[in-house]
Design brief:
The structure is a single chain. By secondary structure, the protein is mainly beta. It has three domains: 104 residues, Immunoglobulins (Immunoglobulin-like); 103 residues, Sandwich (Immunoglobulin-like), CATH 2.60.40; 72 residues, Immunoglobulin-like (Sandwich), CATH 2.60.40.3080. Helix content is 7%, strand content 44%. The strands form five sheets. Strands 13-12-9-10-11-8-14 form a seven-stranded mixed β-sheet, with no helix packed on it. A four-stranded mixed β-sheet has the order 3-4-1-7. A hairpin with a 6-residue loop joins strand 3 and strand 4.
């Protein structure tokens, strides 16, 4: 009888410990999506739902547990908080019209899905139909010293890596050698349009650490992505060596941001063209330039929301965004 009692006690403790371990791998994740410029969208007839791996890809409209609510009455920002296991999560937002469950009214048709890697409680803010794009990062480790490919892994960290997740803690941000050159490491990430900061790190013998980055402290590498796929070629520890295939950095000023009426550009002596796009990727306005130091663009007739800007010169194109009040 004593042996049975001991075994039962041991089993109960094992199950309790397992429950505790499981609880430690679940986090409160808040999603928020800006529906301001979603078109079509009618808050009197349309609900906003989520579906994804955390929801077992339940058809939008079938389970109110995945229905989002305005952050406050009349707001166009919708929110949902869910308890989700750590690891990779894919998801997408959907309109459900007049309560009819359907897959037909997602942000876009088909791939890609939005993707995050959960490592703790977090909030993810998105814009409806702000479609992520593939960005390929390559870093040349040929002259990295010290670097031993038999013991060292190469990771990318930054705002693009789940909000500066500690290098080595999320395997999805580990680079792998390319087929053509074993000292050039590569990774492809899905990124939303906008500004990103990042840096490469050595992870020695699999131990997550901040100690072995390209250099200590600031500055970080910076990258602006737009609606185009992008390849970035970097060299370990050389911040000026990265040459994006699409976005070639150059200097200019855009202000104010947010803007009410006049959007100003200065330092644009060598700029040849400025394009402005809405969130759907539709070209709203093109301004062709020639030997102009500054220009003011009237955006009074723009609806409130987020817009993307491409600024062109002879060396390439640079993308940024502004908010119209």
């Amino acid at each position: 009888m004593k042996n049975f009692t001991l075994k039962l006690f041991t089993l109960c403790m094992f199950l309790l410990m397992g429950t505790i371990v499981m609880a430690q791998t679940q986090y409160a994740i808040t999603f928020q999506v800006d529906m301001t410029n979603a078109d079509p969208f009618d808050p009197t007839t349309d609900d906003v739902y989520m579906s994804g791996t955390f929801a077992d890809w339940t058809q939008p409209g079938m389970d109110v547990a995945f229905k989002m609510e305005p952050v406050e009455v009349g707001s166009m920002f919708y929110t949902l908080t869910a308890t989700i296991d750590s690891g990779e999560v894919m998801y997408k937002y959907f309109r459900v019209i007049d309560g009819a469950a359907s897959w037909d009214n997602g942000e876009w048709t088909g791939d890609p899905n939005r993707k995050i890697f959960i490592t703790g409680d977090a909030t993810y803010e998105n814009i409806w139909a702000d479609k992520p794009m593939e960005v390929v990062f390559n870093v040349d480790m040929t002259d990295a010293d010290p670097f031993d490919p038999t013991t060292d892994d190469v990771y990318i960290g930054g705002s693009l890596a789940n909000g500066w997740a500690q290098p080595g803690s999320v395997g999805a941000y580990m680079l792998t050698p390319t087929d053509d050159n074993e000292f050039i490491y590569t990774i492809t990430l899905l990124l939303n349009a906008g500004d990103h900061m990042y840096k490469y790190f050595r992870i020695i013998n699999g131990e997550p650490s901040w100690d072995n980055g390209e250099w200590s402290g600031d500055p970080n590498r910076e990258l602006t992505t737009d609606t185009l796929a992008l390849v970035v070629d970097d060299v370990w520890a050389l911040i000026d060596a990265g040459i994006p295939s699409v976005n070639q950095p150059f200097s200019y000023s855009m202000y104010p941001n947010p803007v009410n009426s006049l959007l100003n550009f200065s330092g644009i002596n060598d700029v040849t063209k400025i394009d402005i796009f809405d969130l759907t990727g539709k070209l709203i306005r093109t301004i062709n330039l020639e030997y102009t130091k500054e220009i003011s663009i009237n955006v009074n007739d723009f609806q409130s929301g987020v817009y993307f800007v491409k600024v062109y010169n002879n060396s390439g194109v640079q993308a940024t965004k502004f908010i119209k009040n």
